[in-house]
Amino acid sequence: MVYGFVNQSGGHARIYSEVGVGTVVRLYLPRSMMAPELAEAEPASPAELPTGKETILFVEDDPMVRQHTGKQIVGLGYAILMAENATEALALIDDGYVPDLLFTDVVMPGGVNGRQLALKLRERWPELRVLYTSGYAHDK
Amino acid sequence: MTIDGESVPSKYVLGKPYRRADLAAKLREVLDEPAGHGVP
User: Fold this and answer.
1) pLDDT digits over A33-71, tens only?
2) ipTM over 0.85
3) Which of A96, A89, A97, A92 is nearest to A61 (CA)?
4) Which residues of A fall within a CB distance of 8 Å from B6?
5) Which of A53, A69, A132, A138 would you mutate first to test chain B, the one with the most B CBs within 10 A?
6) Most exposed among A76, A88, B10, B34, judged by the fewest C-beta atoms under 10 Å?
7) Closest by Cβ to A138, choosing from B6, B15, B38
8) How many angstroms separate the CA atoms of A117 and A86, rounded?
9) DSSP code, position A5
10) Is the dihedral of CA B17, B19, B22, B26 positive or negative?
11) Cα distance between residue A86 and residue A92, in whole Å
């Protein structure tokens, strides 16, 4: 599998193994001279994107996604409240924060999923907007 | 998609991975809905 991936990419692999010591796998990949397609596809400036001043409660258990998306939301002008799970989100609410929109992952650890969190918050604010995110959404 | 046995319109779901432009558009779309709308 490793050989196939590297070979297909125009590179090569070197594997060094020593009994009782361990194994070193080095993958050598050619440097791409092409401009990143994703960067080109994105609008050049956030000014071209719809923005807002509302407060977004963003609940996401993946720390990398939480950090990356959090920056994007702030970059769009919104105020943001971030939580790792429903328990943290509810604690923020108990501290007095009031979101305009709940943006939450559907599947989360801790026993309360995004849907259940939304229902809890809707009991307090029936007009709270809710947007779900999921890695499974494209398959449905 | 279906969450907890209930169907949620795609309007209220942003599939991963998403791009900044899709995120920006979806946030604005849902925020701009009239009060009382949205997923139950």
Assistant:
1) 665 555 445 555 667 899 999 999 999 999 999 999 999
2) yes
3) A89
4) 115
5) A132
6) B34
7) B15
8) 6
9) H
10) positive
11) 10
Predicted confidence band of residue A135 (pLDDT cuts 50, 70, 90)? confident
Mean predicted lDDT score pLDDT of chain A: 84
Per-residue pLDDT for A109 more than 80? yes
Residues with Cβ within 8 Å of residue A8, at least 6 apart in sequence: none
Confidence (pTM): 0.73
Tell me the torsion sign for CA atoms A126, A131, A134, A140: positive
Six-digit token pair at A25?
């796998």
Whose CA is closest to A60, among A128, A127, A125, A106? A106
When CB atoms are compared, the residue of B3, B21, B35 closest to A132 is: B3
- Report in angstroms the alpha-carbon separations of A131 from A69, B6, B11, B40: 14, 15, 8, 11
Which single residue is written with the structure tokens 């702030």? A74
The amino acid that residue A124 corresponds to is R
| pLDDT tens-digit map of A9-19 | 677 877 888 88
User: Residue A39's pLDDT is what?
Assistant: 47
